[in-house]
């Protein structure tokens, strides 16, 4: 997207093309300025709602803003989590953002316990699927990690390098670029990489002893201080929790403490069900249960027993490609959660 266009237009374009993220292009500086995701728009909308009076006028103010205007503002711009390295005037730096998140994320299991110490299986595979040593371009130029102000991975880089960038830069989406072709080839996620890993290293899964160990004993995922909400929790509070802890989703529990549904950070039901700016504000004040009742399709809930082994979890991912997996106790209440990012981090 050109950063001169209205942010609302960019959001609708993402929905129309069924995209979760898209590159941002700054025509003034003639370089990529980062990525915009659906989650970014949701967080920016909540920010405008909270800082401009929690009224319909706040939503209308956001609708009048261009991407560049939102990015230039230190408050709203900080919610573009994949554009924090841009050179706009008052941007929060990556270092300060990591410091800000450390207090809320230390118990979430999303990033802090990552230890990339292996990755031998990935050392001979490039992001493009060709051995880096066989790539002619790799022999003639330096492998890049940024393209303009866009944090990215070179198409000729090792797959392990892509994983390391996502860990170090705290990225859920990573653009793949071919600098010689002056463009973004694709945007990859942890699910994409884990799918490749699962499909190509089946033999190792069958022989490695660690695959017979319960996931909860391997330190994978989150098994303490699990973030949850109830169906009576106001939606704006749910969105605040997701933003503060940088979570992709949160389980909604019923009166018995069992998982009733999932609410994802990129769920836009509260916008789709709104008819004007005032109804958007009303939906933000409504309970998450009321919003879920308006949803056309529920996100699948994948669960497993507390003692599920790593082998079981990988087999399940191979079958259903889950975004998150809940571990249940003997009362069928959630006690842990594992994501593809958690699995990938443990292996690398």
Describe the fold and architecture:
By secondary structure, the chain is of the alpha/beta class. The protein has 16 helices and 13 strands. The strands form 5 sheets. It has a 3-stranded mixed β-sheet. Strands 8-9-10 form a 3-stranded mixed β-sheet. It starts with 6 loop residues before the first helix and ends with a helix.
Number of strands: 13
Secondary-structure-derived class? alpha/beta
Report Rg: 21 Å
Distance between the termini: 33 Å
Helix content: 25-40%
**Backbone shape:** flat
Number of discrete helical segments:
16
The biggest beta sheet reads: 3 strands, mixed
Strand order of the largest sheet: 5-6-7
Q: Which sequence of SSEs, written as H and E, runs from N to C? A: HEEHHHHHHEEEHEEHHEHEEHHHEHEEH
Question: How would you name the oligomeric state of the polypeptide chains in this document?
Answer: single chain
**Mean pLDDT metric:** 82
Poorly predicted ranges (pLDDT <50, ≥5 residues)?
86-119, 134-138
Give the amount of beta strand, in percent: 15-25%
Q: What is the element layout, followed by pairings?
A:
Layout: H1 7-16, E1 21-26, E2 31-37, H2 38-51, H3 56-63, H4 67-72, H5 74-77, H6 94-105, H7 136-140, E3 146-147, E4 150-151, E5 153-154, H8 159-168, E6 173-178, E7 183-189, H9 190-200, H10 202-207, E8 229-230, H11 235-244, E9 249-253, E10 259-264, H12 269-272, H13 277-285, H14 288-293, E11 303-305, H15 310-320, E12 325-328, E13 334-338, H16 340-347
Parallel strand pairs: 5-6, 8-9, 11-12
Antiparallel strand pairs: 1-2, 3-4, 6-7, 9-10, 12-13
Helix pairs in contact: 2-3, 3-13, 9-16
